[in-house]
Amino acid sequence: MQRTQAEEGRAKAAARKKAAPRNSLPVAYLRLVLDITAERGVDAEQVLKGTRLTAAHLTAPDSRIASADAARAIANAIRLTGDRGIGLAMGLRTKPTAHGYLGYAVMSCNSLRESLEVAIRFIQLRQRDVSLTLSVEDMTAVMEASETHSLGPHRQLFLEGLMLGIVRVGGFVVGEPLLDCELWFDWPEPDYFAAYRAQLPPVRFSAPSVQIRFDAGLLKRQPVMADQGAARQAVEQCEREQALGGRGPDDIVRRVRAALVLSPEGYPDLAEVSARLFTSSRTLKRRLQQCGTSFQQLRDEARQRDAVRLLENPDLEVQQIAATLGYSDPPSFTRAFLRWTGKLPSRVRGR
Question: Which helix (DSSP H) or strand (DSSP E) does residue 104 occupy?
Fold first, then answer.
């Protein structure tokens, strides 16, 4: 019995999903572990014992490794060195270049806020275990980590390395050894922390969640290597990598959301987003409809998100914000904002 065209399509999609690598990590992160253990007299072969990794994996610049192999290597490193704080050691060594094109994009943005937003937008290119958000509470900027699934026994190590790595890269971006911040972890202070305390920013343990908190004024700091042309090229490469990442049909909504970033020219239109995702406008509209949404709905979401952020800036008049978001006049923006939030823009700004 022959299968229908729709059944053939579903079978091919299932095969692609099955074949796609899941939870893989760039080999650059494992090289950090090997550098740390080598300095402590541990041979790389001992660290890699029990994994499927070879020298070819370690030398290929764009190679990725399965998370299971990375976890085995890290477990070996902890056992051989007796140091359960290797995640902190990794974070302290992290440089933007360890993150490939994403690192170059982060370095060349026009402000620290833009750098962090780019990092959030493309973090899934480097790992798929944790997502990040950036918000401002009063005068404090908060970057919070949320796990996409259980991280198992290496949760502390992974989150310590990730969050301290962001602090290290954030400092590099603005020309400091570390970003001036406070780290929050939601577990009690471990015994290995004392050995690293002097090298770290203030850390709060048993906190409500895993966060990086710093003065919101730092968001305006210009990176020492700011270069709009270089940033554009690096972001385009990240977009290309994201589009070709084989993440499945359910990911199209997230990818469109990620593409709807406000620039001095406004938001990209349907044709521009379609081109970035290497598809046609017609196909993109159909795929969004299958997911129960539309390009216009997602653009309105982006407008609402950015409206709240722009209203936090007292130097911007409401009419400037309306124009920036693509509204022809302030009343149109006010009506839209009232529909989104049930509040007037002036009420939100006053609060």
Answer: helix 101-108
Contact 74, 196 (CB under 8 A): no
The span from the CA of 223 to the CA of 172, in Å, is: 8
Check whether domain 280-351 has CATH 3.40.50.300, yes or no: no
Q: What percent of the chain has pLDDT above 70?
A: 89
Q: How do residues 131-186 score in pLDDT, each as one tens digit?
A: 888 888 889 999 999 887 778 888 999 999 999 999 999 999 999 999 999 999 99
All structural domains of the chain with their residue ranges: 21-82, 87-243, 280-351
Quick check: 207 and 236 in contact, CB under 8 A? no
* Whether 240 contacts 110, CB under 8 Å: no
Contact of 86 with 33, CB cutoff 8 Å: yes
Q: What is the separation of C-alpha 28 from the centre of its chain, rounded to a whole number of angstroms?
A: 17
pLDDT digits (tens, 9 = 90+) for 297-339: 898 888 888 888 888 777 788 888 888 888 888 888 888 888 8
- Asked whether 81 and 191 are in contact (CB, 8 A), the reply is no
Angle of CA points 210, 130, 260, to nearest 5°: 110
- Looking at residue 335, its amino acid is R
CA 193 to chain centroid, in Å, comes to 26
Residue 266's pLDDT is 85
CA 299-302-308 angle, to 5 degrees, is 140
β-sheet with 211-215: strand ranges across: 130-137, 140-147, 211-215, 182-184, 203-204
Tell me the C-alpha distance between 219 and 112, whole Å.
Answer: 5
